[in-house]
Amino acid sequence: MLAKRIHIKDALGKAGKEVVVAGWIDHIKSLGKIIFITLRDKTGKLQVVALKNKVDSDDFKALEKLTPESTIVIKGNIQESKAKNASHELALKDFEILTKSDVPLPIDMGDETTTNIDKRIDNRVLDTRRERVNAIFQIRSKLFKYSVDFFDKEGFVNINTPKITSSGAESGAELFALPYFDKTGYLAQSPQMYKQMFVMGGFERVYEIAPVFRAEKSHTTRHLTEFTGIDMEMGFIKDEHDVMDVVEELFKFVLKKVKEECKEELKLLSVDFKIPKKIPRIKHAEIRKLLEKEGKKISEDDDLDSEAEALLGKIVKKKYGEDFVFALNYPYTIRPFYHMKPDDDPKGTRSFDIIWNGVEIATGAQREHRYDVFIAQTKEKGVDIQQEYANIFRFGSIPHGGIGLGLDRMVHRLLNLDNVREAVLLPRDPERLTP
């Protein structure tokens, strides 16, 4: 029967016709002469009705013994339903039991589950069958696709860069070291050097969507030790605003597509959002003044902490009616050595963060492309730079800039999830190395 199987969503549109469906048993209830089964697949749920006088006696008994999450193939007719929450149901004619699930289940499979996130991740094979969780990852998959579509449309070239490197691009304290034959290798904490290399290598515009690793012992609702980065770099720019222009269009493009093509998933998750019209761009100095008016003080050389980001999100929402804000011109003391300084502000940088619904989801900047200045900044920051990195600026470098964006945090903020781990199938944090 499996050869003729169609999805539940498609079966519901075939009133009066015979169909074959397959999936997991969400609920099963026997009332003696009738069995009600709620069948679930990735497209939705369907009530199945099995009448004792329509099914072989032994087969009916086998149905009664089935447990939740058992898998089954069912053939029957789609007919109108008397149930309040369904317009149609399937009248069972024949079935094939594929597997019977063990009981009890290790997690609560209800829509409003009582099982905590750690136990759910331990049993992710069950958890992702839940409609709400499945919807999260359907949307995440689309965000990935729409990002690729956007970069392709804008003339970016996809690149794949090494995830085992000989050194880090930023803080050595955040590197995962591993034995590499007779050497020490490191898991890549950023594709930064490689992005710059291939912008200089003639591609001019490049992007990569791939894992990034940070050995941060952070126990927060938004930090992971492995995350999916959406990284892009573009050459022949005038300044960092050229990068922000592209990033702004990226968000407008992907959010419009999600709104158009993920209606059912968004409805299931009770999520609505506003597509940005014009994302405000506010300098660090001005942000400090706005925060101070609300009772939050940030010094000239401080980054924005989570409290400041959340407060800034509320200020921007009230003042500009936008969920996004570009925070500009961060102090050089807290930015990487490869960020360019403005000519008129040696203490600042041509850098920016993107804050979405009160959480930073990306960092970008115009990079320093002048070899002598680049070398001077490595010395100024006390960074022992690899010569291979420095060499890419010696043979015809170009003005360029880019961004590192977290796909996980995008999903986190878009869907208003409580924890970024909800947006990752199998998250990694300082404690979790399985499954």
Protein described:
This protein has an eight-stranded mixed beta sheet with strand order 6-10-11-16-15-14-13-12. Strands 1-2-3-5-4 form a five-stranded mixed beta barrel. The protein has a three-stranded antiparallel beta sheet with strand order 7-9-8, with no helix packed on it. By secondary structure, the protein is α+β, with helices and mostly antiparallel strands. The two termini are 34 Å apart. It is built from 13 helices and 16 strands. Helix 5 crosses helix 7 (240-261). The chain is elongated. The chain has helices at 8-11, 57-64, 117-122, 124-127, 131-153, 192-203, 240-261, 263-268, 284-293, 306-320, 371-381, 387-391, 407-414; strands at 18-30, 34-41, 44-51, 71-80, 88-99, 157-158, 164-165, 177-180, 183-187, 205-213, 226-235, 281-283, 324-328, 351-356, 359-366, 400-406.
Structure summary:
This protein is α+β, with helices and mostly antiparallel strands and 435 residues long. The chain contains 13 helices and 16 strands.
Tally of helical segments: 13
Mean pLDDT: 95
Oligomer: single chain
Q: Detail the poorly predicted runs.
A: none
Number of strands: 16
Strand order of the largest sheet: 6-10-11-16-15-14-13-12
Using the CA coordinates, give the radius of gyration.
27 Å
Task: Determine the strand fraction and express it as a percent band.
Answer: 25-35%
Give the termini separation.
Answer: 34 Å
CA-based shape: elongated
